[in-house]
Amino acid sequence: MTIRSLCITAVAALSMAAGVAVAASYPEAPIMYDKPVKGVVFSHKVHVDKGMACDMCHNRLFEQQAKKAQENKDFVMESLYQGKYCGACHNGSLAFASNTRCATCHVGVKGDARAKSGAKGDTKGHH
Fold first, then answer.
1. What is the rounded distance in angstroms from the CA atom of residue 116 to the CA atom of residue 34?
2. For residue 110, how far is the Cα from the chain centroid?
3. Which of 4, 72, 74, 116 fits a 20 to 30 Å CA distance from 84?
4. What are phi and psi for residue 126, nearest 5 degrees?
5. What is the assigned CATH class of domain 27-117?
């Protein structure tokens, strides 16, 4: 094995190991925001599966504590439109714009109830 192929193999192995470590460390259950409106879902799994690392959002856009952002007065759609919170990526260039595909995240009161009861439904946050 040449030094070049050894290096490529090592980098690939480290990348895969890092991916497994990241994938194993996020919450499996979707987060269901209930302020300022009920029934807004976020799935770490969807974002990790798209290749996002934790530090792309934490502690830059969101704190580590789940739902902490909803305590902020500016955690409203207008802030997303201005590039804050989810809007930093959901701007129409990096990911679908936060003013489109509303039902992807806003599953509503019924979706909130389904998530809390453990029933199947559209609460996965398909991004």
1. 12
2. 21
3. 116
4. -70, 100
5. alpha beta
Distances (CA, A) of 84 to 73, 77, 124: 13, 9, 22
State yes or no: pLDDT of 22 exceeds 60.
Answer: no
Q: Which residue has the tokens 């704190």?
A: 63
Secondary structure class of 117 (helix, strand, coil)? helix
d(CA 123, CA 112): 8
Q: Please, what is the Cα angle at 4 between 13 and 48, to 5 degrees?
A: 30
Q: How confident is the model at residue 20 (pLDDT cuts 50, 70, 90)?
A: very low
User: If you search the block for the tokens 């990348």, which residue do you land on?
Assistant: 15
Spacing of C-alpha 76 from chain mean position: 17
- The pTM (predicted TM-score) of the whole model is 0.70
Residue 120: CB atoms within 10 A of its CB come to 7
